[in-house]
Prior knowledge:
The protein is mainly alpha-helical. It has a two-stranded antiparallel sheet with strand order 1-2. Strand 1 and strand 2 form a beta hairpin. The longest helix is centred in the middle third of the chain and has 18 residues.
Amino acid sequence: MGGKVRVVFKQYPLSNQCNPALNRDMHPAACPGAIWSMAANDQGKFWEYADKVFENMANLMPKEGDEAAKKAGLDANLERFAKEAGVDIAKARAYMDSKKWEPRLKKDLEEAGKAKVGGTPSIFINGRQYNDNPTPDAIKKAIEGLLSKK
């Protein structure tokens, strides 16, 4: 499918910390993870960072300690994953502190609202949403079917 398919990742953190469409914090690591991913993207390291985070999803936030200790542990883990992905941490922190990520997040959330996204992952292929969390093979088959019609 080389050159005919483009994968686009949009942010939709499942937390009211940064997603006003939600009325609760379903995933406390979602907003910090999203912001770190945008900082990684600013350095061309989004997919490397995303791979590290998704490989370690079960261990993002420590399970022991008070909320402050858990948040500190989460931040340390996200920074470690960024470092392992080749992200310049000083530049990433400057990007996050400057809030350069806010317009991107706002745009992604607005697009999600228009598309009636209600959870993650949400997969769209040529504007059609696949709600049943399809397997990679099902996604490949759907794309191949679309490409064969062209």
